[in-house]
Amino acid sequence: MAGTGTGGFLDRWFVKVNSGKVVIGIENLDYHTPKSLSDLWQKFKEEMDDFPEGQKTTVYHYGFSEETGVIRAFAYRSTNGFVSEPLGYGIAMKPECSIPENLQLPGDIKSMMDEQREIQRALPESQRVYIGGEIQIHHLMEAGFNVYTLDRFDDFASDAVTMFNAFRK
Fold first, then answer.
1. Where are the domains of the chain?
2. Within the chain, where are the H helices?
3. What are the pLDDT digits (tens) for 99-112?
4. Where are the alpha helices (DSSP H) in 59-155?
5. Handedness of CA 91, 82, 145, 11 (dihedral sign)
């Protein structure tokens, strides 16, 4: 699973799927997801005292199909009622950046994310996607997945101080 948008929502979905759902694979999970996400989103918004108008979120599911054995991916967007959107196999970037010719994974990821950061810095603050911290790789294989830290951005320490100071306020 992965997500963008409203902070904290993906965490709740992860817990719900792992503690309150009985599914046998990605296809079976896809069957249950649209209604479950829609219900959870409504409850999430109701629980927030000052939920900002226009907040949105997108949830992504990735896995090997229990029907075909190939990787499947789905997107569920709050902006369209969490309808299941099957995603094609391949490389996609969010936010945008160029994909190097002869892409080498995971080696090219850091330079691609550096480009994303530069593009985002050029936008007004209210429109930016903020990218920072560490680059975490989630490598999905049929037998399971590996998670590891690929790299850390040069401004990791200063960004951490900024976040902790903002949190204290």
1. 1-90, 97-169
2. 9-20, 26-47, 109-121, 156-168
3. 999 999 999 999 99
4. 109-121
5. positive
118-165 pLDDT, tens digit each? 999 999 998 888 898 999 998 998 888 899 999 999 999 998 898 899
DSSP-derived 3-state class of residue 112: helix
Neighbours of 159 (CB within 10 A): 14
Q: Name the token pair of 128.
A: 């930016």
Find, among 54, 38, 39, 48, the residue nearest to 8 by Cα. Answer: 48
CB-based contacts of 85, cutoff 8 Å, min separation 6: 74, 75, 76, 77
C-alpha dist (Å) from residue 71 to 16, 25, 37, 66: 23, 11, 22, 10
Helix (H) or strand (E) holding 137: strand 134-141
Residue 164 half-sphere exposure toward CB, CA atoms < 13 A: 6
Residue 51: DSSP 8-state: P
Sort residue 104 into left (φ over 0), alpha (ψ -120 to 50) or beta. Answer: beta
The structure tokens 């190939």 sit at: 70
CA angle 70, 74, 76 (to 5 degrees): 170
